[in-house]
Design a protein that fits this description.
Order of helices and strands: EHEHEHEHEHEHEHHEH
Distance between the termini: 30 Å
Number of domains: 1
CATH superfamily: Dihydropteroate synthase-like
CATH class: Alpha Beta
CATH topology: TIM Barrel
Shape: globular
Structural class: alpha/beta
């Protein structure tokens, strides 16, 4: 899953793709690099970020969704927690709702998902983007995140969303400390027991930056974070994770291809 951020303030590429033409070109380049899905977002969910209203969010993503749906057969995901933005995106070519609030942020979101038949990806987050990194606490992060996602899966089933439409995301970096993120990455395969496709969004996250910094003894560049992202992707692929949400599709795709080849018996 390739990331297309049309936001001016995302944590790693904010402002890079705010123009429609550049965002579309970026999306097409991600597809060329091997993306199987594009995830288009118009609201930053970085730690301590402020929300934007639905009108502004749609202004940022609307034309990008329309053009990419016309110019490519690649499935499009709308990264939003607002039902009106999701509905507009689905009406203009998107097929998936990727909601960092687990479809809890807007009371209309589950209804929109059910009525449109869209695929959904529900993520775990402790708190909100504004508050999530203020002392996140768990007794057992893997067990607690698992329990939340299981509850959401059951909620969706009760609401009439078909099981094959559901994807779940443990929410790396969303209301978790460095050690929480490491635990979730290490035991990502546990979430396969939920019986749904699992998405992991670890790309360029702070915990990877911290690991690289410990090695280099300086702040890592985005490229160095992408290398760490690709290395971690090999572990996730080994664990059977279905979807990897990343910024640098080419680096991750090539790394996974080389890694898989090195493990193939001759």
């Amino acid at each position: 899953m390739g990331i297309v951020n049309t936001t001016p303030d995302s944590f790693s590429d904010g402002g890079q793709w705010v123009q429609i033409e550049s965002a579309v070109a970026h999306g097409l380049s991600l597809i060329e690099a091997g993306a199987d899905i594009l995830d288009i977002g118009g609201e930053s969910t970085r730690p301590f970020s402020d929300p934007v209203d639905a009108k502004e969010e749609w202004r940022r993503v609307g034309e990008v969704v329309r053009i990419l749906s016309r110019e490519s057969d690649c499935p499009l995901s709308i990264d939003t927690s607002k039902a009106s933005v999701a509905k507009n995106a689905l009406e203009n070519g998107a097929e998936i709702i990727n909601d960092v609030t687990g479809l809890e942020g807007d009371p209309e979101m589950i209804r929109i998902a059910r009525e449109t038949g869209a695929g959904i990806c529900a993520m775990h987050m402790q708190g909100t983007p504004k508050t999530m990194q203020i002392n996140p606490t768990y007794e057992n992060v893997v067990a607690e995140v698992y329990a939340y996602l299981e509850d959401q899966k059951n909620t969706f089933a009760t609401a009439g969303i078909a099981p094959e439409k559901i994807c779940l995301d443990p929410g790396i970096g969303f209301g978790k400390t460095h050690s929480h993120n490491i635990e979730l990455m290490k035991y990502a395969s546990k979430f396969l027991d939920l019986g749904c496709p699992i998405l992991i969004g670890h790309s360029r996250k702070g915990f990877l930056g911290k690991l690289v910094k410990q090695t280099l003894h300086r702040e890592p560049s985005l490229h160095e974070r992408d290398i760490a992202t690709a290395a971690a992707a090999c572990s996730l692929a080994d664990q059977g994770i279905h979807i990897l949400r990343v910024h640098d599709v080419a680096t991750v795709r090539l790394t996974l291809t080389a890694y898989a080849s090195s493990r193939t018996s001759v």
